[in-house]
Amino acid sequence: MGEIELLKSKAKEIRKNIINMLGEAGSGHPGGSLSSADIVAVLYFHELRLDPNRPDWPDRDRFVLSKGHAAPVLYAALAGRGFFPEEELMTLRKLGSRLQGHPDMRKAPGVDMSTGSLGQGLSAANGMALAARLDKKNYRVYALLGDGELDEGMVWEAAMASAHYKLDNLTAFVDHNGLQIDGPITEVMSPEPVADKWRAFGWHVLDIDGHDIKQIIDALDEAKTIKGKPTMIVAKTVKGKGVSFMENQVGWHGTAPKPGEVEKALAELDSDLRL
């Protein structure tokens, strides 16, 4: 199996775990977790320099899930990389679990930043990237933002800072699936044109298909060649990707599947028809 096919397989496993976790929990956010599964799969199984046996290894690459409600996609990737047993995924959102509804860096191994209040993740990523420079470390920092999250003013304050400090060790993604909890992003508070805004803020910007594994890899490779500015990868995605009845449906932003829906979703993911 070639690397592209292997990463597609990892993304499918992440999606299946997302469905199982949320079905067991009875609550959570499938739409934006499924839309970002390919990006997270490439990051955790191709790009990030990590050591599951040393989650706090000082020279590791960092990842900040700014859209913290998509915690299931992060937990599925961390379990897949061996930070904790996959069986633990079924404790999502349960009392006493390390896997809370939003990531908690004090509890879950492999989580670099506690997130959940939208808009704050990029500022944290800036701090990590600046720390690498001050400490003369060569680790890189990655962040994933939602497109609805771009409504938050703090994102743009952070964007200015990233460019001002020339944080070329920082690469961020926008999971551009076009939907947020209250509806289409263009109707709630349009961030368009997304790519042009980031360019205007001084970032190197790449537009890609966020479900095309090769495009994700190529964009990450290009980001590492850019000097003197951070890189934003605007990834066009489909909310609920991989499950027909969830795709492009705003109602699945924060609604967990019921048992019958879990079964149907897993059957579709196994068939590969939508991936």
UniProtKB/TrEMBL annotation:
It holds the Pfam family Transketolase_N. Residues 10-265 form the Transketolase N-terminal domain. Keywords: Metal-binding, Thiamine pyrophosphate, Transferase. Transmembrane segments: none annotated. SUPFAM superfamilies: Thiamin diphosphate-binding fold (THDP-binding) (SSF52518). Belongs to the transketolase family. Its cofactor is thiamine diphosphate. It comes from Pelotomaculum isophthalicicum JI. The keyword Transferase applies. PROSITE patterns: TRANSKETOLASE_1. The keyword Ribonucleoprotein does not apply. This is Transketolase. It comes from the Bacteria. InterPro entries: THDP-binding (IPR029061), Transketolase_CS (IPR049557), Transketolase_N (IPR005474). GO terms for molecular function: metal ion binding; transferase activity.
